Amino acid sequence: MSPPRAAVALLLVLALVGCVPGGGASDVPRRLALDSGTEGTHTTLNLFAYAVPKVAYDELVPAFGRTSGGRGIAIQQSFGASGDQSRKVAAGAAADIVNFSVEPDITRLVEAGLVDPEWRAGAHDGVPYGSVVTIVVRAGNPKNIRDWDDLLRPGIEVVTPNPFSSGAAKWNLLAPYAAKSDGGRDPAAGLAYVRELVHNHVKLQPKSGREATEAFLQGTGDVLLSYENEALFIERKGEPVEHVIPDVTFRIDNPAAVLAGSPNRDAAQQFLDFVNSADGQRILAETGFRPADPAIAREFATEFGSPDKLWSIDDLGGWPTVDANLFKAGSGSIAQIYEGAAR
């Protein structure tokens, strides 16, 4: 005798549930239930972001769900290397909001007609938070790493991601490049440093900043180049590491935008507005990110390091210039260094 239809349906549901992969970074957005519950949810937003800010979104999404504007809105999240995430959305992945490591990954979507060219017209010029490039070392700093020159000492092995997939890698290389080139005034000196670093000291190039962190925590290398927020995150988890902010380093700006053709554009903008609000900015600060709101930044000033000199992307001519001159595959100066190291 055949089993009842209800029983068959239940077995099919259980089988499908059992096939869903576990957590972690994924090509497929994962649903994060809101603290207020998802009963009555009428809108689901897809967020595509680079790997590192997951710790912030784990707090931002539930907090948004507890606001009047967030009720009834669920947010599915996909995390991965910034460049890879941008290319997925450009290729057709359904996204409502994007948050990438570097501006060129937003520009790719502008050129594809997916993001409004005026995306920077909103709050904080489209950059709700940022960080600075920092040096992460083993607990106790056994190799006595203090500044950029120390990375070039014989035998020092450095972990930093690959700039062809990771936005973090670009920031990590721009920091010593700017320090050694005096903000781009002496490009040859900056490139000489990067060449020595990449050819003789970078032994592993993971795809994303988070993968680089995991490799370092598993014992690879003497030094990890990373975001300050990532260093704070792993320190707070109790990992046996500490971080050093060089006297001269680089300001990181992490942009976010709503997709122009999103069927849920108003809801997506509500979430981005929450991220830029005082409450959202405090959550970002509490999870290790430097908030864009000057008042909130002053409130948390003692939580972050204070380098003597902080270069910015504008000091080097802006992202269009930097990406074309330094990172464009085949012709960019730093891209050529990486391509030469791979031969």
List the helices and strands and how they pair.
Blueprint: H1 5-18, E1 30-32, E2 43-50, H2 54-65, E3 73-80, H3 82-90, E4 97-99, H4 103-111, E5 129-138, E6 158-159, H5 167-181, H6 187-200, E7 202-204, H7 209-217, E8 223-227, H8 228-236, E9 241-244, E10 248-254, E11 256-258, H9 265-276, H10 278-286, E12 290-291, H11 294-299, E13 309-311, H12 319-327, H13 333-342
Parallel strand pairs: 2-3, 2-4, 6-7, 6-8, 10-13
Antiparallel strand pairs: 1-3, 4-11, 5-8, 5-9, 5-10, 5-12
Helix pairs in contact: 3-4, 5-6, 6-13
Q: Spans with pLDDT under 50 lasting ≥5 residues?
A: 1-38
CATH architecture verdict of the largest domain: 3-Layer(aba) Sandwich
Q: Enumerate how many helices there are, as a single number.
A: 13
Supply the number of structural domains.
Answer: 2
Please give the alpha-carbon distance between the first and last residues. 67 Å
| Total strand segments | 13
Instruction: Tell me the structural class.
Output: alpha/beta
Name of the CATH first level of the largest domain:
Alpha Beta
CATH homologous superfamily heading of the largest domain: Periplasmic binding protein-like II
What is the element string, with H for helices and E for strands? Answer: HEEHEHEHEEHHEHEHEEEHHEHEHH
Radius of gyration: 21 Å
* Helicity level: 25-40%
